[in-house]
Specification:
single chain, globular, alpha+beta, about 425 residues, about 30% helix, initiation factor, binds guanosine-5'-triphosphate, binds magnesium ion, six-stranded mixed beta sheet, six-stranded antiparallel β-barrel, translation initiation factor activity
Length: about 425
């Protein structure tokens, strides 16, 4: 036995990945993700710790046993010592998106957006929101279709995604929310408005085509947003499929697949045969577990518009992703300088629902104006409060506009005739 992946060991020892990372942190062993490998002597040490703990307390892991592994000297004091040692992924290039974010989101050290572990633990977990990006025709919709087990691609005019859709998949690993975007448009517009709606980006690359311009763009977007990426090499069923070329091409972007010693998760799949799709879902869940995604269904509502459109029969429809809190039919919502009262809500399967909690995409009937992708949605106590909020926003906007005009005039004066 030699190097072992963290999640493999966690599985073997029947430990939660989060717990495994805690132990590693306690030992001062550095890693980039749960898919990083650890050295044999560290593995032995962890087994020892787990055996000593038995079913037990788990309070003791920050104390490393006397025989610290050779590659983790002196760092086993349990505080957030700069992660040294652990040459598990030696020449691995750093710039993978995962590598930029702190790998140990679940661990006790580090994230400043986390109030404290104690208060955080009271907030329930939420389902991950996954966006799928990639070059035209590489199979994004087909892959989602396979997951959803319905035929969305066949329903779309010309097989091209016409609008942003979102759906919830019930997998053996729990609920996963997927956003289907035309190319990466929605992702870009949403992000341009400062809202990060996706927790994980799947970059679909056709095995017979490898990296294309929109693939590179998609990767750049995911990196800029610091959203962890998982690569799905699609169309593996084709005789001309060449996954090795895809992996080599990725390496040239400094994205090094796991099997080449890096941390990039690459999953070969076929949207046609379903090969590898279960693995993909498993990697998504693993990643979500690592990110420790939580949201309070009892908190103040916050959401983002995924899509807005006019339906000939129903009128204005908006797909909104609930991020915090819970939406109810009858709630007043404010988007930009518009408001609406929720007359009806449907889930992504088209069923009527009365309320929707975090990480739920809902289609809302009740806005008078079509909201734009990426706009933030907030709720108001009643119609009066909604109007007040809009009035404040409108006046703020006019002030900004006036200030801009003023600045321009002053500039012109300074420049003289
Ligand atoms: P856009 O929405 O236009 O960007 O395309 P897309 O990435 O959503 O691709 P789409 O799912 O529409 O698939 C494009 C074509 O590739 C279709 O003809 C699919 O049938 C085909 N295709 C998708 N996945 C696979 C696959 O795994 N194997 C094979 N053989 N064909 C596939
Ligand atoms: Mg599509």
């Amino acid at each position: 036995m030699s190097k072992v992946r963290i999640y493999t060991l966690a599985k073997e020892l029947n430990l939660e990945n989060a717990r495994m990372l805690e132990i590693l942190d306690g030992l001062g062993v550095s890693y980039k993700s749960v898919s990083s490998t650890i050295e044999e002597d560290t593995v032995e040490l962890i087994k020892q710790i787990v055996a000593e703990e038995g079913t037990g307390s788990g309070d003791e892991v920050t104390q490393a046993p006397a025989a610290a592994p050779a590659d983790a000297p002196d760092t086993a004091k349990g505080d957030a010592a700069p992660q040294a040692s652990q040459p598990a992924a030696p020449a691995a290039a750093q710039p993978a998106a995962q590598a930029q974010a702190p790998a140990s989101a679940t661990a006790t050290q580090g994230r400043d957006d986390v109030v404290s572990d104690a208060s955080k633990a009271e907030i329930p977990h939420r389902a991950p929101v996954v966006t799928i990006m990639g070059h035209v025709d590489h199979g994004k919709t087909s892959l989602l279709d396979y997951i959803r087990k319905t035929k969305v691609a066949a329903k779309e005019a010309g097989g091209i995604t016409q609008h942003v859709g979102a759906f919830e998949a019930q997998t053996s690993k729990g609920r996963i929310v997927f956003i289907d975007t035309p190319g990466h448009e929605a992702f870009t517009t949403i992000r341009a408005r400062g809202a990060n709606v996706a927790d994980i980006a799947i970059i679909v690359i056709a095995a017979d085509d490898s990296l294309m311009p929109q693939t590179r763009e998609a990767i750049a977007h995911a990196q800029a947003a610091k959203v962890p990426m998982i690569i799905a090499i699609n169309k593996m069923d084709l005789p001309q499929a060449n996954p090795d070329k895809v992996k080599t091409d990725l390496t040239q972007l400094n994205l090094v697949p796991e099997e080449y010693g890096g941390d990039l998760i690459v999953v070969p799949v076929s949207a046609k045969t379903g090969e590898g799709v279960e693995d993909l879902l498993e990697y998504i869940s693993l990643n979500a577990e690592l990110e420790d995604l939580r949201a309070d269904p009892k908190g103040t509502f916050a959401g983002v518009v995924i899509e807005g459109r006019v339906d000939k029969q129903s009128g204005v429809l908006a797909t909104v992703m609930v991020q915090e809190g819970t939406l109810h039919v009858g709630d007043f919502l404010v988007v930009g300088e518009n408001y609406g009262k929720i007359k009806a809500m449907t889930d992504s399967a088209g069923g009527r629902i009365k309320e929707a909690g975090p990480s739920t995409p809902v289609q809302i009937l009740g806005f008078s104006e079509v909201p734009t992708s990426g706009e933030k949605v907030s709720s108001a106590k009643n119609e009066h409060a909604a109007r007040d909020l809009i009035a404040t926003r409108a006046s703020d906007r006019r002030d900004t506009e006036n200030a801009q005009v003023q600045r321009k005039l002053t500039l012109e004066e300074m420049m003289g005739p």
